[in-house]
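U., I forgot to send this yesterday:
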Amino acid sequence: MTTSQNPQAGAPIPPRATPPAPTRPEQATHPLRIAQTLLHLALLGTAGWAVLATFFSVLATGIGLVFVLGIGLVVLVGLIYAMFGLAWFETARVGGLYDLDVTQPTFAKRTRPTFGGWIRSLGRQLKDGGMWAALANFAISATLGALVIPLVQGFIWSIGMIINPASLGTGVFRWMFLLQDVTPTQGRLLGALGIVVTAAAVFGLILLHRTLSVALIGAQAREEKLAAEAQQATHQREGAVRAADVERTRIERDLHDGVQPRLVSVGMTLGLAQQKIDSDPEGAKALLAEAHTSTKAAITELRQLARGIHASVLDDRGLDAALSALAGRSHIPVTLDVRMEGAGQAGSQSTRVARAAESAVYFVIAECLTNAAKHSRANSVRVTVRVRSTANAEGPDTQVLWARVEDDGIGGAELQPGGGLDGITNRVRAAGGTIQIDSPAGGPTAVEVSVPCAF
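Result:
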């Protein structure tokens, strides 16, 4: 994790929240998936309604005991926790069965560390749509399971019919077909028909279970994903606004404290030279020389100020060349290690990443080098830049521009509002990236940044 030294450098900036990956259910027609779903439904058909009946019994008991010394309230509170546990189980079950990248539910947290805060958390939990969706899915799955069990029995008996047609007059088939005397050929035909019908019905229930489960449980994951994306967009917008505000403040400060006084001094010096040009030519020449020197210094400051706003070499020649120019102007020796090949594109040095990513990383490194020179008492700085790939469940891997700046200075950098590191932090956030700052007292300081990019 990289950084430059600056009393304005900061504590580690937590990375932005990563939105949940989208659901990736396998094909429901996969034999293993069919067998797993069938087993789930059979178990739920056997035990699911027993669990639900227990819940309803506890609910009725709790309501009935509410006025008996408040014992019913304790029972009802316990029921809320049991419902949450069942919802947690159902979410984990469906997520594991269909490979849904869902976030396990968490019980509503207290907003205040008081008894009233705990009661409010219970109320919020009762209003949690995700919990009720999971409970509804459990009840539906138990119902489908109760239907699957006799269908599986019918499937097995149908196989038995083909093997032993004489069994048609006994058991379930006698009740189903109301037949007493049939030929072995008719019995086998009825057995084959039973296999087809029961297998189709079981397969239809399996597909229905998958569809409903993904719709109910997966909907929560989609809502969380959208919420995370909205939060990320808000953070990027806030970062862009904050970065622009910090940059405007810096420009105003540099103009007010640097270039403006120097230009005022140049104007006054030229005025004095004009007054002495006839009476004291030599003195006027000295004043003109002083004004000339001050003018060149003002031009240099303006050039540096403009470079801090926009680095033209970055647009013209790319990040590698721009960083080489930065290192050449640094008062501290800088070791550059820049490799801009794209993933799977080794050797393609000319490849350019997104300009926004290049700009964000460039200004991070520029600020770090400036801070190292001014505040860190460092003897050397190392800059490492890479293009990396990160796994992305939504599709192809994501390319990120990663950079690390580390110096051997005294550390102790702190992020302060309006400071240099505050500016680069917001610039990185605006580009959708993350920044990590590590600067313990005594050093060293390191700043690490990752910004999404594209070729």
